[in-house]
Amino acid sequence: MLDSLLHLLLPNVCAVCNRLLVEGESGFCRSCRAEFDPFALSTEGEGMLRSTIAARFGSSFAFDRGWCSYLFHKNSPLQSALHSMKYGGLFSLGRVFGRELGELVAASGSAEEIDCVVPVPLHPLKKIERTYNQSEVIALPLARRIERPMMGHVLRRKRSTRSQTGLSAGERRVNLEGAFKAVGDVGGMHVLLVDDVVTTGSTMAAASKALLGAGAARISLASVALALKE
């Protein structure tokens, strides 16, 4: 709570260590950012994302392209930043992460193939409680960077689900079964689905199933971080 108040009063402080930011720093100081674990190449992140999802879903969940900025580690500065973004009210960090993801997608040369950007939705009651959806905050600057519309209205969370934290891969799949419904026109579209963290891929798989069932032609994935079992 004190950290959130500090960031409201002094927005130019590091989201992890609360030190004042200097020119050229955004969201995080250089020292804390140096402890993040970025993928050296976008293809490395995509390869690990494919391996993670294939281990859980085999060939039942096929996606077109995938982008991840960082490898997630427990008790790391990145975990602290993501937690502050998601639960601590520091939604501005989502803009920082979204711009970074946008650069990754743009640099890949695949942005022109994408028709729209869709954030993974929160249940309406959870969004009221949190006041914002961190995936929407991430998706907006990403969409602007690749000059594609963000279509947050086309996917809805039908029911509130338990937090995925602490659940096994199987429990995550059951928890999200039938949780999403496509309510907008995505017929024939190549949809870029955006979330903050991918752990087993269960959320992305459930959301993709709803979009494909509504006629989407292809699904690609983008997330700030990929969390492997440690």
TrEMBL record:
InterPro entries linked: ComF/GntX_DNA_util-trans, PRTase-like, PRTase_dom
SUPFAM superfamilies: PRTase-like
Start and end residues of each Phosphoribosyltransferase domain: 137-225
Pfam families: Pribosyltran
Family the UniProt entry places it in: Belongs to the ComF/GntX family.
Full protein name: ComF family protein
Organism (species): Chlorobium phaeovibrioides
